[in-house]
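Two proteins follow. First one:
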Amino acid sequence: MKNILFPFFRNALLILFLNSLPGSAFAQTAAVIDASKYSNLQQAVDALPANGGIVSIPPGNYEISKPLLLKTENTRLQGSGGSTHLINKNTSGEPAIIVGLGKGQLFRLELSGFRISGNPKSGDGIYMEKVQELMITDMTIDHNGGHGINMKDCTENPRIANCNLNYNLKAGINIDGGHDIVVSGNQFEENQDALQIKDGFNLTMTGNNIDDHLRHGIVVENSYGSIISSNMIEECQGTAIILTAPATPANRFCYGITISANVIAHHLGGGIELNNAWGCSVSSNTFTLVHNFSILAGPGTGGITISGNNFSNSRGKLGARNEKNPFTFDVGSGVILKSATDITISGNFFGRLTTEAVKADESSKGILVSGNMMTELNQGAQVGKKAINLGGAKDVLVKDNLIRK
C-alpha cells in the first residue's frame, strides 16, 4: 500500500532544513531592536530591516522636537507601559509620530504600550496616512495640540483598542476615510470631541467610555453600515452622537446605521442628532438628564426606527440645583422631529421629562407613535401642555399609548 503521508513529511523536513541555512531565501530577517542601544528613537526605528520587526522602547522620558517617522511595514513599536513616555516639545503644530507619510501604502503597523503627550502648540499625537491593517493598543495619548490619533486614508481594517485618549485639543480619534473600523474598549476624557469620522464605513464602536467632552461625543459624516453600541457617553457640552452635522451639504449623508444600548447621560446640548440620515435604528438606549432633546431627527432624515429606549430625569436624585451650573438641573427630554419623514416611535418609556415626549413641526410627515408609556411629562410647564405634540405634521398615526399624569 502506498504511503500517502511520506511526501508531506519529506516536504516539511526540507522546509525546516532550508530555514536553518544562514542567508537562504527562507531565513527570517525580521529584527528585534532595543532602542536603548541607539542615541535616539529615530535611529532605532531606522535600523529596522525591510521586512520589519519590533522596536522595543524601555522605560524613560523621551523628549522629541520633530516627528518620529515610522515607514517600515510589518513593524511593532512597543513600550513598557506608561513609564515609556514620548514628550512632544514641538511648538509648530507637528505630530509626535508620523506613520506612512510619503511611502504609499504600508501594511500591518502596530503601536502598543507607551504614552504620548504634547502641548497646546504641538500637533497630533499620532498621524497615520495610507496605513492598512493597523493596530493601536494599550496607549495613553494626552494633552496634544491636535488630535490624539489622526488617520488619513487608512482604508483597510484599522483597530484601536484599550487606549486612554485624554485632554487633546481636537478629537481623541479623527478618521478621514476608512473601512471595517474597530474602536473598542477605550477611555475618552475631555477632548474637544471623542471621535470624528467622515467618509469612513462599517465602523464598529463598542464598549468605550466617553466623558466630559468640550464639544460632542461621536460625530459621523458620510457613512453607512456602522454600529455604535454599548458605550457610556456622559457630560458633553454639546451632543452625545451626531450623524451628519447640521448645515452639511445634502450629498453628505448617513444610512444603515444602528445606535443601540448606549447610556447617554447629562449632556447640555442633546442626545442623538440625525441630519440627512436614512434607514437607521435607534434602540434600547438610556437617555437621562439630557437637555434640549434626547433624539432630534432633522432635515433630510427619514426611515428611522426609534424603539425600546428610556427617556427620563433623575426623579429628584440629582441633588440641589445651582443656577450657575446647568449640570445640576434635573431635566429630561424627548424626541423632536424637524422636517423629518417616515419615523416610527414605539415601545419607549418617557418619564418625568421637562419637555413633551414627542414633538414635530409642520414640515414633518409620515409619523407613527404607538405603544409607548408616558408618565408625568412637562415638569414645570403650564398645565395642559401635551405629551405628544405633532403640530401640523401630515400623515400621522397616534394610537395605543398609555399616558399617565
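Second one, unrelated to the first:
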Amino acid sequence: MTGRGAVAGRAHALGRVIAMVNDKGGVGKTSLVANLAGQLAAADYRCLVVDLNRQANLADDLGYRDGDGDDQGAGLVLSVLTESPVVPVRDVRPGLDVVPGGARLADLVPLMVSRLQERGRAAFDVLAEVLAPTAAPYNVVFVDCPPESTILTDLALTAARWVLMPTKSDVGGLVGMRLVAERFAVARERNPGLALLGAVLFATGSRSRRVHAEVRGAVEAAFGGHSPLFTTAIRHAERSAQDARRLGRLAHELELEVAAQPAWWASLRAGTSAAPRLSTAAAGVAGDYRDLGVELLTVLRAAEECTPTREVEAM
C-alpha cells in the first residue's frame, strides 16, 4: 500500500491511540494510564499501553518490573532504529498488553536527534509507522508520555489521534498543560488529525466548583477557547497510591483485597495486627477510575461521531 492508501490505513489503525500528556511530572499520567487500561481490559476491551517513560513507573503499577518481559525499553528503541513494528509483552493483565519503557529509552533521544538532522520533522513519523501495524486489533491504545522530554512527547503526539491531559489544581500542573498546548500546535503540522479529548483533574482534595472552574479556564486559555474538562476527578488518597505501587496492584484489584482483609479487631485478636493494613480509601479511588473509564468511552465515541477516523467498534 502506498500514497494516500497507506496514509489512510495508518490513520485507521491509530484512530484509538490516546497520548497521556502533561509536561509536569507527578500529575498522574502513569496512574491514569495503568488504571484506565486495567479497568477497560477487565471489561473485555483489548488494550495496549506504550511506555515512553525512562523511569518506567508503569512497570511498578502493573507489577512486571524485572520480569521476563521487562526489557527496559530496548525493544521499542530497536523498533524505531530498524523501523519495524513494535512487539508488546502479552497479557500483563488479561486483555492488556504493554510495550515496556525504561532506562534504554535514553538511547532514543540521540537517535532522534540524528534523524531530525537527516529528515527534518518528518523523523517524528516513525513512532506512528512502527505502532500502526501493532495497534490495529486493539480497542484502545494509551501512550504514557514522560515529563520534560520534548522529543519523546513529539513522537507520541505525532502518532496519537487524541490527547488526554491529567493535571493537578496547583500552578505546576497548569503550567505543564500550557507547554503541552505549544507542543500540540507543533505536532498538528505533521499530524493534522490530532485532537484534544479532554483534561482530567487528578489527586484533588476538593471537588468544589471553584477548583473545576479554575482548571477549565486554564485549559481554555491554553487551547484557544476549547475547554473540555472531564466531570470525573480522581481523589487524593496517598496511602492507597502507596499501597498500589508497592504491591503492583491497580485500584480495582486493591479494592478487592481491602474487602477481603479481616477487620482490625479480628487481626488484633489473632495476633496479626503488626501486618500492614491496606487503606480503605482504595474503594473510593477504584470507583473514581470506573466512572472515568465510562466517561472516557462516552466522550471518545461522541468525538469519533463528530470526526470519524475509523469504524467505531461496538461498545
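SUMMARY FIELD: Residues 282-306 form the longest helix (25 residues). The two ends are 30 Å apart (CA to CA).
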